[in-house]
Specification:
Elements (H helix, E strand, L loop, with lengths): L3 H10 L9 H18 L3 E8 L2 H8 L1 H17 L6 E6 L2 E7 L7 H12 L3 E3 L2 E3 L3 E7 L7 H17 L5 E3 L5 H8 L1
Parallel strand pairs: 6-7
Antiparallel strand pairs: 1-3, 1-6, 2-3, 4-5
């Protein structure tokens, strides 16, 4: 049984709906893992995951259906993470996933597995199946990464690309080439 202090700590660090880390806690974890990755020279992946067309779910089926989908999606992803991975509710229908030790060369299987945890099986609301997909944007620590904000910005750019390319996919952040940067300046 949890002591009162442990219960208060849990309440302060976890999202009430999903029971995942809350935004503040997952950002603290990301900072700690970013510091560790730099110090030890180990890989670190950061992912922003988003439930596709979530507003439509809330608008057509109601917020109770949306809450159920958020809770179940969180549970499905949490069941498919490694013991040393971290997942938190970043905001609304977005999740921030911190994956220490996930090398850049071999990530697609791991991330696709997490993404498919949401879309493979319909959610049930009032005994009716609801098919839900998700989009993931991923990035890794590199020498140019200077902050948690950079990591999130890069993951967010990749997530935006996942949405722009049709949703229901994992997209990895790529550095803009010098020619892209020159083109953007014109």
């Amino acid at each position: 049984m949890l002591t009162a202090r442990e219960a208060l700590h849990h309440q302060a660090t976890h999202d009430a709906l999903t029971d995942l880390w809350n935004r503040s806690a997952i950002l603290d974890i990301l900072q700690r893992e970013l510091d560790r990755a730099r110090r030890e020279g180990t890989p670190l992946a950061v992912v922003l995951a988003d439930i596709d067309h979530f507003k439509k779910i809330n608008d057509t089926l109601g917020h109770l259906a949306g809450d159920l989908i958020l809770r179940d999606a969180a549970h499905r992803m949490a069941q498919n993470t490694r013991p040393y991975d971290f997942i938190g509710r970043y905001g609304g229908e977005e999740f921030l996933i911190v994956l220490p030790g996930l090398a850049e060369g071999d990530p697609s299987h791991r991330l696709t597995e997490l993404q498919h945890a949401i879309s493979q099986k319909p959610f049930l609301y009032l005994n009716e199946p609801i098919h839900v997909t998700s989009s993931f944007g991923a990035t890794w620590v590199d020498p140019d990464t200077i902050s948690v904000v950079d990591m999130i910005r890069r993951a967010d750019e990749a997530l935006y690309d996942a949405k722009a390319f049709g949703r229901n996919r994992v997209v990895f952040y790529t550095q803009p080439s010098q020619s892209d940067a020159l083109f953007d300046m014109l």
